[in-house]
Specification:
Layout lengths: L1 E7 L6 H17 L4 E3 L11 H5 L9 H13 L2 E10 L5 E8 L5 E6 L5 E3 L5 E3 L12 E5 L2 E5 L8 H9 L4 E3 L6 H19 L2 E4 L3 E3 L5 E3 L3 E3 L5 E4 L6 E7 L2 H9 L16
Parallel strand pairs: 1-2, 2-3, 9-10, 10-11
Antiparallel strand pairs: 1-16, 3-4, 4-5, 6-7, 8-9, 11-14, 12-13, 14-15
Length: 276
């Protein structure tokens, strides 16, 4: 049994304040006996004012939130999955990048969000991530973490089951889905999609989420979740605000569920559709 922690945050527009919040969450997670802490998408900066946000953007090696988090992870001897940070990359755009940090404070892996959120919602909200962000191109699985083989995704990736299937076929034990889901899409789809991905892949899904009303004016859904391979929700942090939650994950549950419904073993190549 492995104890994990999730940080449900209301990230703002000041990286220094956000760094303090992440460090405090690391301290709480370690004090609560967790071996790894998961944080949401955009843990370092959440600001839809592009001009203002640009003043705070740095390459990963200069990012103050990442530096503070790495130092705190080493000090408290705890693994950390920073769901994502906005970091400058070579092409002049920004990467929505997740980081896995070990208990020595070393970055063991990174993942850039593959699927970018370009939508117009019925509420009038419009999002064009591709205007700012550079899409990732690689599927990432991290070995040797406290939760075994950890597969990495970010937010909108949740809607693309092929990515989760690829991670499951690569023997992932847990898939992280850090997010900043809007309230309308969260109410409609968050729980059902996370449970479906866990059931389809026959593994644990850990989804640390942004919550509440943010300084840039947006509202996020919250409900950070841990879902087991059977689709059972082990933790739901609701929508009441920022905080750290805990769950105990038993990786033996994966083989138990897969022995009952060995869907992964039954996968077959799907032929092209025939139009008749």
């Amino acid at each position: 049994m492995t104890r994990i922690a999730l940080f449900q945050s209301t990230t703002g527009i000041d990286p220094a304040a956000n760094a303090r919040a992440v460090v405090d969450a690391i301290e709480q997670a370690a004090a609560g006996g967790a071996e790894i802490l998961f944080t949401p998408e955009m843990s370092g900066l959440l600001d839809r004012d592009a001009a203002r946000a640009a003043k705070s953007l740095r390459p990963a090696e200069e990012d103050e939130v990442l530096a503070a988090a790495r130092e705190a992870a080493a000090r408290h001897r705890i693994w950390l999955h920073i769901g994502s940070l906005a970091v400058l990359v070579e092409d002049g755009k920004v990467a929505n990048r997740g980081f896995v940090v070990d208990r020595d404070g070393k970055v063991r892996a990174t993942y850039d969000k593959i699927h970018l959120f370009d939508v117009d919602l019925p509420t009038g909200e419009s999002w064009r991530e591709s205007n700012v962000y550079s899409a990732g191109k690689g599927v990432v699985l991290v070995n040797g973490t406290p939760v075994g083989r950890l597969g990495l995704t970010i937010c909108y990736d949740l809607r693309f089951p092929g990515l989760f299937a690829r991670l499951a076929e690569s023997d992932a034990d847990v898939i992280a889905v850090p997010a900043a889901f809007t309230v309308p899409t969260g109410k409609a789809h968050w729980h059902v999609l996370l449970r479906a991905r866990a059931i389809e892949a026959g593994l644990f899904v850990v989804a640390a989420a942004q919550v509440g009303h943010h300084q840039d004016g947006r509202n996020t859904f919250g409900h950070s979740l841990v879902v087991d391979p059977w689709g059972e929700v082990l933790l739901d942090m609701g929508e009441e605000g920022q905080g750290v939650g805990f769950a105990d994950v038993d990786l033996k549950r994966i083989s138990d569920v897969r022995s009952r419904i060995p869907a992964l073993n039954h996968r077959r190549p799907i032929p092209d559709a025939v139009s008749l």
